[in-house]
Amino acid sequence: MTKVEELVKKQAEFHGYKRESLMPILQAVVRSERFLSEEAMVAIAKELDISTADVYGTASFYTFMDTKPRGKNIIRVCKTITCHMKGKDGVIEALEDTLKIKLGDTTPDGKFSLLQANCLGWCHKGPVMLINDEVYPELTPQSAVEIIQKYLKQK
Amino acid sequence: MSPYKVSLKINNLSVSVDEGTTILEAARKLNFKIPTLCHHDDLCVAGNCRVCVVEQVGNRVLPASCATPVSEGMEILTNSMKVRQARKHIIELLLSEHNAECTICYKNGNCELQELSNEYRTGNRMFLDVLKKSAVDISSPSIEKDDSKCIRCQRCVRTCSQLQAVSALGVINKGKDMKISTFLNKPMNDVVCTNCGQCVNRCPTAALVERNYIDQVFDAIYDPKKFVVVQTAPATRVAISEEFGMGPNRSTGKMVAALRRLGFDKVLDTDFTADLTIMEEGTELLTRLKEALVDGKNVALPMMTSCSPGWIKFQEHIFPELLDNLSTCKSPQQMFGPLAKTYYAEKINKNPADMVVVSIMPCTAKKYEADRPEMRGSGYKDVDFVLTTREMGMMIKQAGIDFEKLSDEKYDSILGESSGAAVIFGNTGGVMEAAIRTAYEIVTGREVPFTNLNIKPVRGMEGIKEASVKIKDVKPEWSFLEGVELKVAIAHGLSNAKELMTSVKNGTANYHFIEVMGCPGGCIGGGGQPIPTNMEIRKKRAAAIYEEDEKMTIRKSHENPEVQEVYASFLHKPLGHRSHDLLHTHYTAKKRY
Predict the structure, then answer these.
(1) What is the DSSP secondary structure assignment for residue B132, as one 8-state letter?
(2) What CA–CA distance (Å, rounded) separates B96 from A50?
(3) Does A119 touch chain B (CB under 8 A)?
């Protein structure tokens, strides 16, 4: 049994084998693996006795349930209208320059993925970005880069 | 049915209906047609296309009539200004995302969206065209999937999960990116799809259609070097009439005449090999019973029928541990192929290399079956092309044949004679009934103890049926069956099959013989049958099949003289050496996920 299969098995034991356990199991896998691999989705389908298309369909509905490999730190810049008006494009440009990747990509060392997100509910303090579970409001291109530097210093 | 009645008014006409009835159903009672797209009588409510909206007096929003139950005193308008306007916009919005290349579309003339836009005369384009480009998935030999034609009504998704318990198709992504797709958007041929084609039967547009081989078959017919024979499955003869607006009707004679006019060199019958299947499968069952009861061998029981290729692929994916329970008999289509290219080729003095065997099937999975690598018993591809009932209809129309006016003709001989037991293969319970008619008689020397040979307990549209036949006063060589109560079960539609298989797997079921057909109602409700389908249509087709059986002179497979002849001069005995080579096969476990 691989590491992912074991994780799924444990999660299914914990949450139960009914269909409604699908969401918490998906969330647990994303928390630990950063994304949902084919292997993970197959393991979940097996455990819950549902089809793989169902698992993938559910996962693909949610932006935060990635089915592509992602970096250790996932940056999500809010793309909706208020943050746009408050200058999220400049923030993204600065991040792209610093990380030397384009929006949607992951750094070759696997440390960062740069993505966009729908409204994070911080319109009054935009532009805003999320790094993993941390919210960073009222960004400027410089402050965004400084925040990234902090993460770069962590190993 | 609910004991409570609800009174309401639809277009100012009063109607009283059971509590829980939808507005759509109530309107139908008054003969008001409300257009629908995502709604299908066989499936659960979805309410996502909104085309069935109506106006409820006093309600600001327009409710979807397919998803809204009636309530006391409701006043509904199905055709008010507001409704017409909304409906027209909904259709136009659907069209703005639809690849409306109707004139060159495979479903041209049989498309619910086309019909609706025709009814509503959606003239000027009100909305921007936002059609997304997508490649057509032709990976499967049975089904073509074209997302550019999809209106995301999810009938296919509901069919695949609700009726077939397969869920190869699902809803992927959200918002403007939402689409109907497979696990990780893999090609249809690489997922658990059984090729049953039930989604094709229910797709309102051409997003899901059968892979068609009409041109290849016409090419073969026009090729003077090719000797083209055609075989027709039982269920096609009661449904082809629907393609010509004649409803589900017995039209075997007209169908034979039409195929002859199309230019097939010989018109032969899959019913012949259905009879042969009974001889092989019946003997296989009796052999397994003997091995279990007399020799004490550990044989796989219950034995399960193997005529339905959708069901076979389902087992290979979902219940690989039960593959030994499947009869090793090929399906009638695949028994016909190798016999045509060996026994028949010899009789008519043809080189099998020059022969082309075409099947007309009520089924899309048969296309996949014919392509399986095991199906080359004759040394050639046993069945070259498989056409659905619908494709046959198209060919007849293309050839300018007036189907309705044709006089009845008979199948060619040999490989054209059949019994009533063969034709009922088209219905759920039919293979079981045919097998019991023959097996009972082999064992006891008497006819089955049912009036007019009609084994009623195995008939009908119930999802899972059970029956038992007490065997007594057997012939001496079958003494081990004396007093045995033969227990059988029948399932149709793969979700019923899954339920039955789960009980077999858990050891809670105690049957000797199980018949499964992959599609609701059996082959008469097959994925290759005329569109539309619903319970009423399937019941009519089933009734026509039983009528056909009653009108046959021979009613039992073992009495078919051509079957007797093929054993006398070629196969020698059921489960014999030649049968093994030509008529039996094996199965391979496939990935479930």
Answers:
(1) P
(2) 35
(3) no
Is residue A89 classed as helix, strand or coil in its secondary structure?
A: helix
Complex ipTM = 0.90
Half-sphere exposure of B536 (CA within 13 A, CB side): 4
Q: Given an 8 Å threshold on Cβ–Cβ distance, is B593 in contact with A57?
A: no
Q: What is the pTM assigned to this prediction?
A: 0.94
- Dihedral angle over CA of B183, B188, B194, B196, nearest 10: 120
Nearest to B157 by CA among B198, B111, B185: B198
Interface test with A, best of B183, B502, B506 (most A CBs within 10 A): B183
- Nearest-neighbour CA in chain A from B133: distance (Å): 20
Element (H, E) at A28: helix A22-33
A-chain residues near B174 (CB < 8 A): 60-61
* Spatial contact of A97 and A114, defined as CB atoms under 8 Å apart: no
Q: Does B47 touch chain A (CB under 8 A)?
A: no
CB contact under 8 A, A38 and B184: yes
Nearest to B95 by CA among B68, B56, B122: B122
d(CA B181, CA B190): 12
User: Cα(first)–Cα(last) distance of chain B, in Å?
Assistant: 40
Sign, Cα dihedral of A83, A85, A87, A90: positive
The DSSP letter of residue A138 is S
Q: B270, exposed or middle or buried, with CB in 10 Å at 0-12, 13-18, 19+?
A: buried
Q: What is the DSSP string of B415-430?
A: S----HHHHGGGSTTH
Neighbours of B24 (CB within 10 A): 22
Interface of B with A in 183-222 (CB under 8 A): 183-184, 191-192
Domains in chain B with CATH codes? 5-79 (3.10.20.740), 128-210 (3.30.70.20), 214-272+333-405 (3.40.50.1780), 277-330+419-583 (3.40.950.10)
Per-residue pLDDT tens listing for chain B (593 residues): 678 999 999 999 999 999 999 999 999 999 999 999 999 999 999 999 999 999 999 999 999 999 999 999 999 999 999 999 999 999 999 999 999 999 999 999 999 999 999 998 877 778 888 888 899 999 999 999 999 999 999 999 999 999 999 999 999 999 989 999 999 999 999 999 999 999 999 999 999 999 999 999 999 999 999 999 999 999 999 999 999 999 999 999 999 999 999 999 999 999 999 999 999 999 999 999 999 999 999 999 999 999 999 999 999 999 999 999 999 999 999 999 999 999 999 999 999 999 999 999 999 999 999 999 999 999 999 999 999 999 999 999 999 999 999 999 999 999 999 999 999 999 999 999 999 999 999 999 999 999 999 999 999 999 999 999 999 999 999 999 999 999 999 999 999 999 999 999 999 999 999 999 999 999 999 999 999 999 999 999 999 999 999 999 999 999 999 999 999 999 999 999 999 999 999 999 998 87
Say if CB B271 and CB B422 are below 8 A apart: yes
Whether A53 and chain B come into contact, CB under 8 Å, resolves to yes
A73-153: CATH architecture: 3-Layer(aba) Sandwich (3.40)
Q: Is B176 on the interface with A (CB under 8 A)?
A: no
Residues pairing with B387 in the sheet: B360
Q: Between chains, do A56 and B184 touch, taking CB under 8 Å as contact?
A: yes
Q: Could you tell me where in chain A the CATH 3.40.30.10 domains are found?
A: 73-153
End-to-end CA distance of chain A: 30
Total count of residues recorded for chain B: 593
Instruction: Please report how many Cα atoms fall inside a 13 Å half-sphere around the Cα of residue B230, on the Cβ side.
Output: 26
DSSP state letters, B190-237: GSS-----HHHHH-SSSSEEE---HHHHHHHHH-TT-EEEEEE-GGGG
